[in-house]
Amino acid sequence: QVQLVESGGGLVQAGETLRLTCTDSGTLFSRHPMNWYRQAPGKRRELVAGITTSGSPNYGVSMRGRFTISRDNAKSEVYLQMNNLKPEDTGVYYCNAKYGMDYQFDAWGQGTQVTVFS
Question: Which distant-in-sequence residues (6+ apart) come within 8 Å of 42 by Cβ?
Answer without folding.
Answer: none
